[in-house]
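Honest question from a wet-lab person: if I give you the sequences of every part of a complex, can you actually get the arrangement of the whole thing, not just the pieces? Trying it with mine:
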Amino acid sequence: MESVDTNFRQRVEALVAQIPQGRVMTYGQLAALAGSAYAARIVGGIAHFGDPDLPWQRVVNKQGGLASGYPGGRDGHKQVLEAEGVSVSDDYYVSVSELLWWPPGDEPAQQGLL
DNA sequence: CGAGTGACCGCAA
DNA sequence: ATTGCGGCCACTC
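Yes, you can. This is the full assembly:
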């Protein structure tokens, strides 16, 4: 409906902005919810040139590892996540299985269904 | 307007 | 198990 310009970027930003504190989402997830499961790279691109007010720090890769290119490097990224309440491993890895969050209504199979 | 790149993911050997 | 390569879409210069 209505305008659909760059709905991808708007969608990703909307999802990231909805990520609750202490939770993390994967790029592939955001990409899939945005409309393209193969556009995970674009999500990263938007993250770098998107709105700096969005909690991109809560966005990690499928491995649960922190991404590069973040202002301050993984060091700053790790500290920010820990400040949010996310436990980051010494290797800059987070428990995706524990902190992975899905938007309400779009969850294909929550962890409870495991 | 055209080309290149990217904070990724999945599969193949 | 590990390593290497390709692919898709959007954004920037």
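Two things worth pointing out. Chain A has one domain: 7-97. Strands of chain A lie at 25-26, 59-60.
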